[in-house]
Amino acid sequence: MDRSFLSHKSVVAASRKFVCIRIATYEDAAENAVLKRIFAPGGTLQNTVFGILTPDGKTSIVRAGRSPAWAFGGAAGPGIHQQAESVLLKMGDTMEAIALAYPGKGKASKGPLPLPYLADLRVALNVTACDRQPLVAVYGNTAQRKTMEAELTKLAWSDQFMGQVQYVAASKAEEFKAVKGLKAKAGFIVIQPEPFGLSGKVIREIAADAKAGELKNQLAQALGKHKPSELTYDQHRRAGAQAGKRWESKTPNTDGAGRSRPR
Amino acid sequence: MKLIPFFLTGLFAVNFWAIPVASAAAAKPAVGKIAWFGTWQGGLAEAQRTGRPILIISGAPQCHNVPGVW
Hints:
The complex is a heterodimer.
Chain A: H1 9-15, E1 19-24, H2 29-38, E2 49-53, E3 59-60, H3 69-72, H4 85-101, H5 121-131, E4 135-139, H6 142-156, E5 166-170, E6 179-180, E7 187-193, E8 200-206, H7 212-224, H8 233-243, E9 255-258
Parallel strand pairs in A: 4-5, 6-8
Antiparallel strand pairs in A: 4-7, 7-8
Helix pairs in contact in A: 1-4
Chain B: E1 2-3, H1 24-27, H2 40-50, E2 54-59, E3 62-63, E4 66-67
Antiparallel strand pairs in B: 3-4
């Protein structure tokens, strides 16, 4: 996945005016179908898909492809992670222009935002390992989660936490079978994913009835205990292969065709 | 999926690359990282509620089947 465009300051700044969705390819048949509608040369779903869509999700505003490079230029193969500044700014400026055209629905667009949940704990451990970020599981029954979400939402979109931590909902202890150290029956469970995202360990359990002020302090302390992997990309791949770490996607991986970008 | 060239929306009659939107990099300080919705349904619901456009990207969270890396 792109590690250049999407971390550029102009794109990050413009992203605050968008709803940003990042999904794991080959994990959900319905999501695969959505991705194929956006970009699937020859009807084949690729490993990576990029698009900018209208708010109803039905229409592409820029050219879709495997990465932002397909829409904004720059390297699409080797060198994809070291794009020229001018190309990165082109994406940021284009997003700013699109945001002017789709400014949102006034008050509705300023209401409380929902938590940006990942699909489930299995995917969440892997995704947060990929991003080298901590994970917060909102763990409890439906009523408990609703109460917890109301408090956590106050923090999740603040400058302090936005983009720094990811979230997943959980309702049963069995969902934590790959996570060591779970004791609570409900609460905000802060998790350190192991480097390969197949398991994790509990950093801290915060009470389910914690209010936003207390939650903020405890969450900040817990996130400070997170230790991201320091392996380089190549080191990670080699170490994972040697250790037999292997990811099995839930749907077949059909990547391969359509890699080259038509000019 | 339909593709409507942005410059044909009627909102911008000029090359929109040249729209005098101040370069975001110049106008704003660094602001951390993108906050992602992790599911299509969750993100789409929010886009429909707020009327904001969607930035979407996907990737398999593995490389040569080794997980923990995009």
